[in-house]
TrEMBL record:
Annotated family: Belongs to the XK family.
Keyword annotations of the record: Cell membrane, Membrane, Transmembrane, Transmembrane helix
Protein name per UniProt: XK-related protein
Biased composition annotated in UniProt, kind: Gly residues: 15-31, 38-48
Transmembrane helix as UniProt keyword: yes
Gene Ontology process terms (BP): apoptotic process involved in development; engulfment of apoptotic cell; phosphatidylserine exposure on apoptotic cell surface
Location within or outside the cell: Cell membrane; Membrane
Biased composition (Polar residues): 129-143
Membrane topology label: Multi-pass membrane protein
Taxonomic source organism: Hipposideros armiger
């Protein structure tokens, strides 16, 4: 979900001397993170950072294959129902395909409109330059008619000459073509396909371009991957999950040998659900450099984990629904309400506004009907164990009620289905244990675990001394309305005016730290507390911050760093630093 920031302010200025955290590579701070985790194509600290590789491209191509196979088999099955006169099944199957797709395409097009709409009075992302008072230029992202230079290798900022009428006409024509193309793509329900292809294009551009443009394209690729992973997660659990239960119920109801097309549709929906969950977790971890990246081995094992647990869950649903349709509906609604309430009381912090947070929690409640989905910072072992114990009891009860309605003495087929539910769930738990015991990014579950933050390997504890500010923060709350309105926060007087959006601030005074100090380069300061993992950072879900960061990063000859503010003290402290 994307939203505007709650009065967030972002500013760029020269890096404060003594700011904690040194330079970490040149693209998103992932170089050191991936190197620590044994990721491919990276170098150590101060190296060239992560690179887009062949396996990343293959992962996107596999995601496209899963997307097309899921949609094609569902439409083919709907056409088959229509040709055979089964109009009820035709309407249900087509409804589960079109309605979620329309919702996702509208959301995707809304994101495109916001990303491609320029500020009033400016031909592009506008910035202006001022003297920061600390011996270097600073960058303000206020909406101004002064645009920055985007030519590679231009070290200074300055006003751009007014475009001629011919160039302005060509620009308008190009923008019109882009708008028409995006409208046509989304009308064809192919918005996600466009985003997949664009993410792959940006990744390849980051591999072929020079150093400055390489880090810029890599950062844009991460943004595009985050968008498409969120869209796919929403669509699969609104489309593939109910489609899977419906088609499995028809398979059980018909009995005998299953129809090949029906089996293909259920298999494609199942693979789509498992793939989307694993892909979402991988992109989320890759986007946060306070967490170690998820390897492709771990992602594949996650696919198998979710594949078998969701298969067992869906088959138990289908067995019960084939006999007790009304009670099945009551059970699903009750389970969704309980799971949604459980998520809400956990006080998640995924979105930038309250109403979007509620919608997100309702979607997570749908996900919890089928599988585990971590939404809270900290060790999830106890919560996950409790969830799977509840799922095991529910699967056993649903399958037991269905089996009690069968003929025990002659119906050997029913006993096979019960064994399939049990064995599939056991296999899913087995792959889950393999992931946590062998392939988790933080290390084996039963052995010594690596620290959550990314820092150079050394005998010293990870992070600065105890009297210094830790990086990143672990328990920062959401920015509340009282904080935005000037109420007392961390010792500040009530009525203190909130700084305007995109304010330029002077550099911070020197602070003693235990790590290598980096003093050069601009700093992008974001007046929001950093969200806690497993939430997305604000600059990934707030599209205004995203546009500003991309504009400043592209115009700066030196990689800027990001800083999130702390709401617990009266003085602005460094809470998060990385290279864009």
């Amino acid at each position: 979900m994307a939203a505007k920031s709650d009065g967030a302010a972002a500013a760029a200025g020269p890096g404060p001397e003594g700011a904690s955290g040194g330079a970490r590579g040149s693209t998103g701070g992932r170089g050191e993170a991936a190197a620590a985790a044994g990721g491919p194509g990276v170098t150590g600290e101060g190296g060239s950072g992560p690179r887009y590789e062949l396996r990343d491209c293959c992962w996107v191509l596999c995601a496209l294959l899963v997307f097309f196979s899921d949609g094609a088999t569902d439409l083919w099955l709907a056409a088959s129902y229509y040709l055979h006169g089964q109009h009820t099944y035709f309407v249900l199957t087509l409804l589960f395909v079109l309605l979620p797709s329309l919702v996702v395409q509208l959301l995707s097009f809304r994101w495109f409109v916001y990303d491609y709409t320029e500020p009033a009075g400016a031909p592009g992302p506008a910035v202006s330059t001022k003297d920061s008072g600390t011996g270097g230029p600073s960058i303000s992202t206020k909406d101004s008619p002064v645009a920055f230079r985007t030519k590679e290798g231009s070290p200074e900022l300055g006003p751009r000459p007014a475009p001629s009428s011919a160039s302005a006409y060509r620009r308008r024509c190009c923008r019109l073509c882009v708008w028409l193309l995006q409208t046509f793509v989304h009308l064809l329900q192919l918005g996600q396909v466009w985003r997949y292809l664009r993410a792959m294009y940006l990744g390849l551009q980051s591999r072929w371009r020079g150093e400055r443009l390489r880090r810029h394209f890599y950062w844009r690729m991460l943004f595009e991957s985050a968008d498409v992973s969120m869209l796919r997660l929403l669509e699969t659990f609104l489309r593939s999950a109910p489609q899977l239960v419906l088609q499995l119920s028809l398979l059980v109801h018909r009995g005998g040998y299953p129809d090949l097309l029906l089996a293909l549709s259920t298999s494609a929906s199942l693979v789509s659900l498992a793939w989307t969950l694993a892909s979402y977790q991988k992109v989320l971890r890759d986007s946060r450099d306070d967490k170690r990246p998820l390897s492709y081995k771990g992602a594949v094992v996650q696919v198998l984990w979710h594949l078998f647990t969701i298969a067992a869950r869906s088959l138990a649903f289908a067995l019960f629904a084939s006999v007790y349709k009304l009670y099945f509906g009551i059970f699903i609604v009750a389970h969704w309400c309980i799971m949604t309430f459980w998520v809400i009381q956990g006080e998640t912090d995924f979105c930038m506004s309250k109403w979007e947070e509620i919608i997100y929690n309702m979607v997570v409640g749908i996900i919890y009907i089928f599988c585990w989905f971590n939404v809270k910072e900290g060790r999830s072992r106890r919560r996950m164990t409790l969830y799977y114990c509840i799922v095991l009891l529910e699967n056993a009860a649903l399958t037991g009620f269905w089996y009690s309605s069968r003929n025990f003495s002659t119906d050997f087929h029913s006993l096979i289905l019960v064994c399939v539910v049990a064995s599939s769930f056991a296999l899913g738990i087995f792959f889950m244990c393999v992931y946590y015991c062998l392939l988790h990014p933080n290390g084996p579950m039963l052995g010594p675990q690596a620290p959550g933050c990314i820092c150079p390997e050394s005998a010293e504890p990870c992070g600065p001394p105890a009297d210094a500010v830790t990086s990143p923060p672990r328990s920062l709350p959401r920015t509340t309305g009282a904080e935005r309105d000037g109420a007392s926060v961390g010792g500040e007087r009530a009525g203190t005016p909130t700084p305007p959006v995109f304010q330029v601030r002077p550099g911070l005074p020197p602070t003693p730290v235990a790590r290598t100090i980096r003093t050069e380069g601009p700093v992008i300061r974001i007046d929001l507390p950093r969200k806690k993992y497993p939430a997305w950072d604000a600059h990934f879900i707030d599209r205004r911050l995203r546009k500003t960061i991309l504009a400043l990063e592209y115009s700066s000859p030196v990689t800027p760093r990001l800083q999130y503010r702390s709401v617990g003290t009266s003085q602005e402290l460094l809470e998060y630093e990385t290279t864009v």
